[in-house]
Amino acid sequence: xxxxxxxxxxxxxxxxxxxxxxxxxxxxxxxxxxxxxxxxxxxxxxxxxxxxxxxxxxxxxxxxxxxxxxxxxxxxxxxxxxxxxxxxxxxxxxxxxxxxxxxxxxxxxxxxxxxxxxxxxxxxxxxxxxxxxxxxxxxxxxxxxxxxxxxxxxxxxxxxxxxxxxxxxxxxxxxxxxxxxxxxxxxxxxxxxxxxxxxxxxxxxxxxxxxxxxxxxxxxxxxxxxxxxxxxxxxxxxxxxxxxxxxxxxxxxxxxxxxxxxxxxxxxxxxxxxxxx
Length: 277
Hints:
There is one protein chain. This protein has 8 helices and 15 strands. It is an alpha+beta fold and 277 residues long. The protein folds into 2 domains: 1-149, 2-Layer Sandwich (Fructose-1,6-Bisphosphatase, Chain A, domain 1); 158-269, D-Maltodextrin-Binding Protein, domain 2 (3-Layer(aba) Sandwich), CATH 3.40.190.
């Protein structure tokens, strides 16, 4: 279902990209650098409607409209089934979307007790869909319909690792993130800032990058992508299920061959500590 929903939403975003009056449709959220568009909100409403129809008993957590749903108590759910929460990001990489940079995605994940059990990330421009289910491995469906399994790169030396990261919208947090990049960059092959955490995590799964780390992501940013990376073999660092973006906790995914080394390096430079903001 996650694949189906992410694919439908990606098609919606593709269609709307060329029909929006940008002067009237972009506003800001947490700061002047944190945009949200009419397409973000409309796409999230589309996903919420679809989930309300297909899974009326489940709760929904979205980037734009928070948490809602779940009309049936745990005690009354059929067969004692666990409460499922859908975590959705209608456009991960909104700045790229606004500027026409071809790196933004729709992310849809199903969680039980704060742990992702199924997820899909649809690369809107490339028309590719990454997906995973807990214990079932990770795959990508290409634009031509072919599907193939995903696995992390076999890299074993941190100095040969290509590392993806991102920067927060908070000025204070950005300053600290810049300091960390300055310490990390001389010790790895290179650093990439793509602009979509969901695609960064899928990049680890696919071997397009060897690791990803970022502070202060919301659960909608990583819920699907982290599962996909883990099922492709990545070693993860994730926050507590109830952590807020403002807490500034670290999210990281590392190819298994460099996980110990890179984890130690992140510890040495202070990146394992949260960056509130």
